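Progress narrative, work stream C.
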Amino acid sequence: SFSEFWARFKLGPDAAPTRQLFKRQTKRVDFKFVHAASKEGELPGGIRVGQGTYSSGNGANAGTTATSAVSMGNGPPESDAPYVNMENAEDQMMKTLELEQERLADDGKSIVSTVLTADGISDVRGFSIVCFVVLIGDMSRGVMFPTLWPLIESIGGSTITLGYAVASFSFGRILAAPVFGYWSDRVSGYRSILITSCSLLVVGTLVYAQAPAIGKRGFLIAAQMILGIGSGTLGVTRSYVAAVTPHRQRTTYMAWLTAVQYGGFTMTPFLGATFTAILKEDGIGYGLFQLNMYTAPAFFMCFICLVTLFLLLFLFQDPEIESKAKKKSKKEQSRDELGGTPVFGGLLTVYDACLIGCMFLNISTKGSIAAFETLGIAFASSHFDIYSARAGATVGACGTIGVVALLSMKYLGKIMSDLQMVCSGMLIMFAGVFALTRVEDGKDNPTWLYVVSIFLVYAVGYPIGHTAVIGMYSKIAGKRPQGFLMGMFASAGSLARMIFPVLSGYIAKNDAVDVFYVLLWVLGISLVVVVVFRDTVSKMAGS
């Protein structure tokens, strides 16, 4: 029955036998199944299945028909009625199917893949588990964030120690992301890497939980680095999304993945604050096992990581990647020809230049938000006389709105291309940064100016602009294995999260406003470069 077919399609990787059956049925021109698989008797592109006719109503094949005595009656399933007189029409029908599939290939899909991804993604369960992996990766720093500075103070550390502890997390990601990405492309797929990363997160949380008892600053920094390595799967998870989503909807699902990541850091610190309110510094425990405000976040994350590990071991499977080479469409051939064109004196190709350009866009957007994270609270206190709790609430509220914006990108993608969303997002970030350059030292600056700036950056500009960059990068990479490429992209973002906060700290020694002028230059130059090369980038991204 159709319900059985659909249930097997929804199984994702488990649906391989169903895919083969669908191909055999298509070869036989099984009108009964095709008609059942289409809600209104119509396949993508206008192919309709009727009482004895087969036609393509749209595109280059409009008007093509094949007549047969096919009956769509309600006879028993084992009846041969649907195949009566099919021999005379089979050649013409198969030719129509092939032409229609070539037309669909221009949109990055096939008749088979269209049915498999009718709901937008071929493995819903796998995608959900991957989202959970991304969530715990950023929760591992978000939940610990409220208690990290008090913990460092309790073991005799300073702000310099805090800087090293925060940077070591990003450094761990820089080391792990390309390695994990290369591993997923060349060695063993996604499952084994995600299991390895979650295991490292378990180890990292347990090591972190012992930092108060050990009392060594280097021990805490090492724990942070292990957590960073364990969460260095952004490239792998984005590569997975690229593998199980159709080309046209990739940015939408990348936005969902980014929403999970963004929420993991901006919305989970309240858990750490809750542990601080409930538990005291002394807490309870015996020997190395102590449950207090410093260790409770780590033990909580250890439990969450173990749950994720269980899901990966028993419910997650690698998607089936079709290795058979397919004939490229004219659109793909044109894109490959453009991508192979040498530029910069033959040092790079257009394809290389577009990928590197997207990495720099990643650095400029991630670096800008990192500078805001570093100076935002202190700047609110020094220039707007806003208490840290109120400033933090403002950032958290805008971050929550940003998550909603990310989840709504499906609708935004219907009216704007990736390139347009990149430009719009960066322009809004530019406006938010510019607002903070209007403040004056020693003056009573209006509070609304700070709120507007944070809203433009956190709630609108960064979520939309940065996520569109990820989607555009994935589309430029095309059908190539994306694990290593996405790993390099993630490492570029982590590098920005290391460099920009440090530079912001040095620049802010003279005047904190100067930091925002530097960000204006970074965002402005990036925006100009995108606009100048917009035609080439659009063609390479298939927009």
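Work stream C, second folded protein:
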Amino acid sequence: MARYGIGRLMDSQEIPSMQRKLENLYDNYNYNSNFTNYLKCSEIIDQNTDVHRKLVGSLCDISSESPIYSTSRSWHRYPYYSYYYPYYGYYPYTSASAAAAIAASAALNTELTLNKTIARKNAEISDLSYKYGRELDELESDLNCAKINNRCLKSELNETKGELIQERARSASRNLACQADIAALKSKLSRTELKLSTLEPRAELAKQLEREISDLKDEIRRVKCDNAILADHNEFQAEVIRSRATSPVCYWSRPCSPVRSRPISPCRSRPRSCSPYRLPSDSPLSPNHCIQVARQENLAARFDDLYTCERLNAMDTLRNFCDNYENNQRIIFAALQEAFSVAKRNFADWKIRVRSTVALTHLGPETLEEAVQNYINRNIDLYDLPCMTSEVICGLNKNPKICLPVGVSYSIINTFIREACRLAWEMSTLAYPLDTALAIDAEVMDETKYRRTYDSEYSAPLVNHHIWPCLMQGTRVISKGEACTKRGASLNRSRSRNCSPLRSCLRNRSTSPMRRARSCYSMH
């Protein structure tokens, strides 16, 4: 029986319900009124009392079912009898008093239930009235705000209408003014077209006259050159005649026939007294030509970028294989110098082939050199970069001033060598090419061409080694190089380095029998 009562208490889920009510009271405590919180707390207490009552009933069933404490006088053996039974009206030894207590408790529960219901309804009514009043106040405030906004919108609408009317008036006046300006411009355009139609023949005549003037100037230059050549020839003939007049005449000899002098063509030899005339700016051989100026500035900037970026990357690569910082600097400098040398050599061969090819079909008004330079400017990329790179690497292998550890090739800086060859080729294709200055170790430091490094001895007059070459155009310095000066720098300075096996074999190779025979013969 007791187990059945406990099972019903579990199935009723009253204890979880009481827990949920407690959580709800805690969450909404600040939002509820004091009376609502009081009612909810009393409701939880009543539910707790009901649970206690059911548990006490189960306790009575347990005591009645026990074989040891089944007598009516054994209730005092359980300590909770004296605590719970007087409070809830359960006395196991008196059935009449228990029935009276049950009836009284039922009446009390009914009265409490009615009171709670009435109080809950009153609380709900008060809450509804409060909420209704608050909503009415909010609606009234929203209505007042809407009325104020409506008035503001009406005033803004009126102002916008006034501005729109004024803008229409201004746009109409502006449109009239624009139409008047358009009419005036159309009239000016018509007058200008009439003037242009009258001036076009004059412009054509002026262009024709300019061409004739330029042709006459060229003819005058040629005539001056021919006159200078003839003057030189006349002076030479006069000197010959004077020398013959002063020398004794051999009467027995056969009279000499006058020597027929062939006039020298101005295109074969340049007269000494005829100064070269200035080329026009549209000639590809002119230093002021747009291609020459633009490419020269671009190549100078790329030369500086090669120093600041690619050189440092190559130095980092070399540092992974060789710790000698000075040797790495010499390798970079030698690679750049070798790249310029290879590029100039290949460009000279290619230019000879281009000149012979262009000369077969050249018929234009421009000279052969101008036609060749135009072809070079249009076909600047016709070069074999991998072949040039391999030639530079071969030249570095033959250089006795630089070295790398055994098993390491100069191809580790292949990127720097390729960029240097490309830059050197493009500098060589200019009408006025750019080139690096000649540099040798132990030369006197030239402040106009080089700047000293941070680790240089500024009082030393001689260059120990070069870090970066000087870029020049003829005798003009375009970009300064960099050199390291130290005291005691000389051409025969000994450097400890690891020679490659190929160089050691070449140096220590045995002499041939012919050489040994010659040496023995010279000794005897």
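The mean pLDDT is 77. No further action is required on this item.
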